Amino acid sequence: MRAFSNFERRVNFADTDLAGIVHFSKILGYVEEAEHAAMLSIGVAPASESGGFPKVHVECDYRSPLRFGDVASIEMVIEKVGESSVTWTFSITLDGKLVATGKVITVYVTSMGAGSVIPDVYREALSA
After folding, report:
1. I want to staple 118 with a disulfide (CB 3.0 to 4.6 A). Which of 39, 68, 108, 126 is the partner?
2. What CATH code is carried by the domain that includes residue 47?
């Protein structure tokens, strides 16, 4: 397992619904931002001319709301690096209180969208 816990995201007004709470779909966008930041921090491009890592499965359990101006902390953990996939788990907290938890599975695809084996240089960085 490899953990990345330094990603923070401030809630924008446009992310909230009429109740003043972050819309559930925006939470998954925050997770994707954290995933990309984690990948870039280890030299893995989330998308490039040669290919990328689209999501094929997402799970999320919402526990507590986020509101405009809140600063959420997002921890991403690489649970498994497979031949062509990466399984991430995530947790989002606000001032130490759990907001959401979940899992994301991505697969490596070529620039033409065909499934492929993760390049060795990426596999090494993701598995370190």
Report:
1. 108
2. 3.10.129.10
